[in-house]
């Protein structure tokens, strides 16, 4: 057995030390994601009301007044007793989007790297009128427990942009705050926790003269997100995104304030075991997830054509 182990290690050494590092690294196991749900939650006055408010469930005890102000929400005096409201996060809807790889992999290293990049998405359905004033949305992934908990919550600010075309408005978005318990992605253990990166993209879906249109903005990446091993008592880690990383304008079509608009938020979680070019791959993944199957199919055809040439 010892000789077999030495031979195996020797072969790995010939293949490069990176392989040994990947196989021998202690990891923080990801959440299975089984039964998890996703949701987009508008941040409004009710978000901050009551003991154990929805805000506290999503982002902990971070200064509610400061974040309410950042999200353009005017709260009453601190001394007023607010009325409790049900935690809407417990009625989360939607579904987790699974998997980065399409084809099965044969090597353990490929398996580890595949498990290190996972994605999910959630969609907000509203109208053009609902996007005319700056506001915030929490994009949330919740567990499948009897009493669900937010496993990942990302606070986005959305603000309008004047395009000069009344029928083609646009918005910009920026991540403000991330609260995390677990990740869907495998990552290296550092003490009791691990860290992952997020790549975020938003697509706007609307109708132009009866035709369904989809546009997505370039992804924004956020690093240093702390995560723990899944469990009932997994702690909440909160990270403020200090720089205002606003996206390029994201345009959609709407003739009036009642016109329907759909915002799809795509989130890619990348662990530290994902290999080279992780950020570039994750950003591309977030962009294609936001756009949907049409974009992925278009890129596949483009790459196939390039190979044929």
Characterization of the model:
There is one protein chain. By secondary structure, this protein is an alpha+beta fold. It has one domain (26-308). 24% of the residues lie in helices and 33% in strands. It has seven helices and 13 strands. It has helices at residues 2-15, 17-24, 54-59, 64-70, 108-115, 278-291, 293-308, and strands at 27-28, 37-42, 117-127, 135-142, 150-161, 170-180, 187-190, 193-208, 211-216, 220-227, 237-240, 250-251, 260-271. Strands 1, 3, 7, 8, 9, 10 and 13 form a seven-stranded antiparallel β-sheet that branches. A hairpin with an 8-residue loop joins strand 5 (150-161) and strand 6. Helix 1 packs across helix 2 (17-24). The longest helix is centred in the last third of the chain and has 16 residues, at 293-308. The protein is globular. The relative contact order is 0.17. The model is unreliable at 1-24, 79-95 and 97-106 (pLDDT under 50).
């Amino acid at each position: 057995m010892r000789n077999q182990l030495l031979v195996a290690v020797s072969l790995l050494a010939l293949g490069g030390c990176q392989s040994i590092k990947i196989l021998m690294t202690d990891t923080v196991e990801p959440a299975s994601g089984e039964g998890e749900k996703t949701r987009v939650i508008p941040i409004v006055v009710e978000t901050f009301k009551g003991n154990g408010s929805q805000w506290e469930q999503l982002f902990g005890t971070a200064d509610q007044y400061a974040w309410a102000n950042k999200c353009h929400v005017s709260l009453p005096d601190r001394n007023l007793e607010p009325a409790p409201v049900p935690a809407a996060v417990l009625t989360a809807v939607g579904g987790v989007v699974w998997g980065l790889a399409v084809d099965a992999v044969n090597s353990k290293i490929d398996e580890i790297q595949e498990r290190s990049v996972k994605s999910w998405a959630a969609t907000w359905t509203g109208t053009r009128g609902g996007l005319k004033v700056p506001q915030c949305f929490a994009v949330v992934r919740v567990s499948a427990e009897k009493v669900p908990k937010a496993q990942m919550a990302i606070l986005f600010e959305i603000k309008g942009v004047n395009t000069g075309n009344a029928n083609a408005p646009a918005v910009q978005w920026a991540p403000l705050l991330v609260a995390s318990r677990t990740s869907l992605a495998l990552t290296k253990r550092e003490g009791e926790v691990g860290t992952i990166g997020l790549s975020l993209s938003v697509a706007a879906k609307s109708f132009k003269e009866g035709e369904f249109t989809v546009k997505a903005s370039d992804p924004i990446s956020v690093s240093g997100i702390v995560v723990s091993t899944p469990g009932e008592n997994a702690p909440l880690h909160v990270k403020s995104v200090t720089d205002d990383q606003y996206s390029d304008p994201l345009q959609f079509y709407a003739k009036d304030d009642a016109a329907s608009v759909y915002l799809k938020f795509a989130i890619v979680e990348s662990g530290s075991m994902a290999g080279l070019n992780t950020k570039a791959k994750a950003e591309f993944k977030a962009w294609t997830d936001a756009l949907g199957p049409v974009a992925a199919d278009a890129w596949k055809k483009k790459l196939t054509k390039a190979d044929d040439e």
